[in-house]
Amino acid sequence: MKLYYASGASSLATHILLVESGLTFSLEKVNLDTKQFEGGDYKVLNPKAYVPALETENGLLTECAVILEYIANQATDKTFISEYNTQDFWKQKMWLNYIATELHKNFISPFRTGNWLPNTKESKELVYQRVFPRLKLINDQLEGQNFLINNQFSLVDPYLFVMTNWIRRLDFGFLNLENLERFDLAMRERPAVRQVLEKEGKPHSLVSND
Ligand SMILES: N[C@@H](CCC(=O)N[C@@H](CS)C(=O)NCC(=O)O)C(=O)O
């Protein structure tokens, strides 16, 4: 498997789950500004022109939530995804979809080309207004637990971690989101998360791609 990623982008979630899973994979860094990677024009490979994308024996997969589900299904550790058609399985689906549609897309600036984070005071404020109530809902779910479902690490947590990492990057702070801060710190304690953050290094710029 080969993961196409950009530092600190939503691809971080898939990168973390790949390391957690112990599966063999390689990495290909994509420059989101130029849409180039070492192998050439990324748009030719993935016409959606965004990350993550995962090259698999089942073809090129896109959409972060789907890739997370794919990795969890390939892993020998079966704790990342619940058994099909159980209550927890559907809970995981709901949270993945919630993070993808209510959070991920709302973190994106409507004033930029591409799907990237806001970089002006005004756009940051607008994004904060949109994401705060949605983050608060998750914060309340996390009362008394470190991970989103049954206090056990699962495929949804790396995706949520991308969001808490963006809270930090955008300097939003965790006021009234203290459970989310605790979650973020618990994630940072995981060896896989540390390893991936170190490997990805400095995140993709907030100032380019306007
Ligand atoms: N619907 C896609 C959205 C992916 C997406 O928005 N990726 C962003 C990074 S977080 C990206 O690559 N944007 C390209 C750009 O801004 O040029 C998914 O859920 O994976």
UniProtKB/TrEMBL annotation:
Keywords: Transferase. PROSITE patterns: GST_CTER (PS50405), GST_NTER (PS50404). Residues 85-205 form the GST C-terminal domain. Gene3D superfamilies: 1.20.1050.10, Glutaredoxin (3.40.30.10). It holds the Pfam family GST_C. Belongs to the GST superfamily. This is Glutathione S-transferase. The lineage of its organism: Bacteria, Bacillati, Bacillota, Bacilli, Lactobacillales.
